[in-house]
Amino acid sequence: MKLTIKICSRFPSFYPNTNQGYSYKTNYIPKLCQTVHSMGGYAEVVSQMEYDLAISIGVPPTRIIFNGPLKHPEDLEKAILAGSTVNLESLEEVEIVEALAQRLPEQNIAVGLRCNFEIDTSRISRFGFDVAGGELDRAFQRLTELSNCDVDGLHCHISTSARSTDSYARRTQKIIELTDYYFKDKQPRFIDIGGGFYGKMTDDLKSQFDGCIPNYQEYAAAVAPQLQSKYPGNSGPELIIEPGVAIVSDVLNFVAKVVGLKKVRSRQIALVVGSVHNVKPTGTDKNLSLRVYRDEENSAQRKLAGPVDIVGYTCMEHDCLYKDYSGEIGIGDYTVVENMGAYTVVFKPPFIRPNPPIISYDSIQDEYKLIRRRETSQNVFSTYIL
Q1: Who contacts 336 (Cβ-Cβ below 8 Å, separation ≥6)?
Q2: 25, 244 contact by CB (below 8 A)
Q3: Whole-prediction pTM value?
Q4: Which of 43, 51, 50 lies closest to 244, judged by CA?
Q5: Mind listing the pLDDT tens digit for each residue in 84-119?
Q6: Three-state SS string across the chain, please?
Q7: Domain 2-248 has CATH 3.10.150.10
Q8: Domain limits of the chain?
Q9: Could you read off the pLDDT of 33-82 as tens digits, one per residue?
């Protein structure tokens, strides 16, 4: 979890009152989430399932940020009353808060609002309150008319491929303008600019992207000085960032054994005990970093010299873990795919085979520990009823 330290340490150097909320949806391995909590990070969750996970591993409700488009009334109320930071998404959620405030007039209620404003013109986001159309205005007015309710911060998370420093500078500028407008008489408790930062990459993966891949220092320099200029000193609102990929992209490797080789006309193929769902569930066409460990004890086994497509166990033609591997690969070798820590665990379906075990390595103690058991057929089918 060194990445947690790296991304956090950059922002406070420009703006001291900065904290991060780790995006559980990116990879909710409990041990990993617990590690983030132990290092002082918020739990950023988008469902009651993730909220329950945070509570179960010892995260206090006050250290949970509850986002997401679907919050059932009972879950929304529970989180608000427990003191979690809850960012509302819609007028329907405003109605739930209005009903709660009227039912419990002695209860002080605080919520945040997710803002929807244009950064990337290629797509209109469906998340948050539309600024241009006046929906954010209506939500803010309805909530501030409640005598026992405060809007104590604004949130944005731009779900777009625009991950440049310029994009983050512009969204920060916009949310500061909105806080100036809506918080004329008091300072907000927090300003949350969301996540979406690039994670750490190997050079061969970086080379497959167009343009520059910003590092954490460059992201921090695009965002935090704007807050420091607006709120000099150490008494400004809390700046919250919500990285997911930036924390976990490089904390997992996927290991799979080579069990089959074949040639089909001009194509060479190596079959491994794994699938594209284990390493690229979002469907990217990029090759993740790959290492092959040779089975030297069985050097007489069949081999292929590249280019070789490394494919998975499913019955789908698109199941290719790595395209055009250039080295030599043989039966019994082990492939190790790197940079696959984001969204793989949470997106992997029980398609054809149950999920593999997850093992952590403690470099200080030089020991391995099982943190997820290998799934069985019984695990997969236990919720079905005949």
Answers
A1: 253, 254, 255, 290, 291, 292, 293
A2: yes
A3: 0.93
A4: 43
A5: 999 999 999 999 999 999 999 999 999 999 999 988
A6: CHHHHHHHHHHHHHCCCEEEEEEHHHCCCHHHHHHHHHCCCEEEECCHHHHHHHHHCCCCHHHEEECCCCCCHHHHHHHHHHCCEEEECCHHHHHHHHHHHHHCCCCCEEEEEEEECCCCCCCCCCCCEECCCCHHHHHHHHHHCCCCEEEEEEECCCCCCCCCHHHHHHHHHHHHHHHHHHCCCCCCCEEECCCCCCCCCCHHHHCCCCCCCCCHHHHHHHHHHHHHHHCCCCCCCEEEECCCHHHHCCCCCEEEEEEEEEEECCEEEEEECCCHHHHCCCCCCCCCCEEEECCHHHCCCCEEECCEEEECCCCCCCCEEEEEECCEEECCCEEEECCCCCCHHHHCCCCCCCCCCEEEEECCCCEEEEEECCCCHHHHHCCCCC
A7: no
A8: 2-248, 254-381
A9: 999 999 999 999 999 999 999 999 999 999 999 999 999 999 999 999 99
Tens of pLDDT, residue by residue over 262-299, are 999 999 999 999 999 999 988 888 999 999 999 877 76
Q: Write down the CATH number for the domain with range 254-381.
A: 2.40.37.10
pLDDT greater than 80 at residue 120: no
Confidence of residue 181 (pLDDT cuts 50, 70, 90): very high
